[in-house]
Amino acid sequence: MERTIRPLRVGFILSNNFTLTAFSNFLDVVRLAADDGDNSRPIRCQWHIMSAGGDPIRSSSGVLVTPTSKFIDPSELDYIVVVGGLLHDGPQIDERTGKYLLTAAESSAAIVGVCTGSFILWRLGLLRQKKCCISWYHYRDFLEEFGDTLPIADQLFVVDGRRITCSGGIGAAYLAAHIVELRLGLSNAQKALHIMQIDRMRPGSSAQSAPPTEFVGNDSRISRALLIMEQNLSSPLSIARLAAKVRLSTRQLERLFKDETGQSPQNAYLRLRLKHARWMMKTEMTLAAIAAETGFVDGSHLSKAYKSTFGSNPSEDRKRSVRSVLDLEPSAEGRRVYDPA
What we know:
Helix content is about 45%, strand content about 10%. The chain has about 350 residues and is an alpha/beta fold.
């Protein structure tokens, strides 16, 4: 007789202006694992979109999602998944939702923060003494708000007991597949991913996609090294320390960078810092402040490296571009160095 496996029970909490991709990637893995083929009967998995009220919840794209239930007793759920989104467009959750999560933290249910859901959990005190994974894109946002801890921003997701945090995006699908595998086995997890055109499972320790740069390589260690560089612009790491973080010797890292990108890690690091400095020229920051932010001794040191790389000094670039850029792009101040122009 076939052994009966209790369904995987997942409750979703969507923040105001949540990220639709992170939510749908997680949900579709659970949905596809729940039934045969691409059917959606909640047989092996059950899912609920919970809220204090019944009003539709607006995603960051403007698409509305209607909750399917009020808050469910946490003891009846295996996972409570908090899907975050925009950080600077009003409160992410209301007081009732916060109280529910605090109560749920005392239950046996695992609490999951996806995308900026980790910010919500941290504000509630639910990630103290826990590892916290976020997207590389929100690394500086996290430090600005929670400067007393360093998040993990070079992995897809992190499991730390009953607290799980995920970078979002495609990482949400890999995390959901990991959870499905634990309860329902590898075949169900793989089946869900394959239907979604995702060719294979990836562990949480896999590197996030590197920020777009001119340095393109296929080796995940290059991606991770670039992420670490981006996270340490103001206080650049030595190449030896960078190599140790990706578990290579200095010589191995230098050889790998040369083979994969045609550049040395030293040059790649310098160009990342200068690219960030060039973007900051569009703000009202002083040259000295920009130099400090990008790891240069002073404005003179930055100017020399800047002119050597871009062919003009910072003040010339600022005079030529800042006025027109700020007039045409009023939201430029909030953009990341790697956003496309």
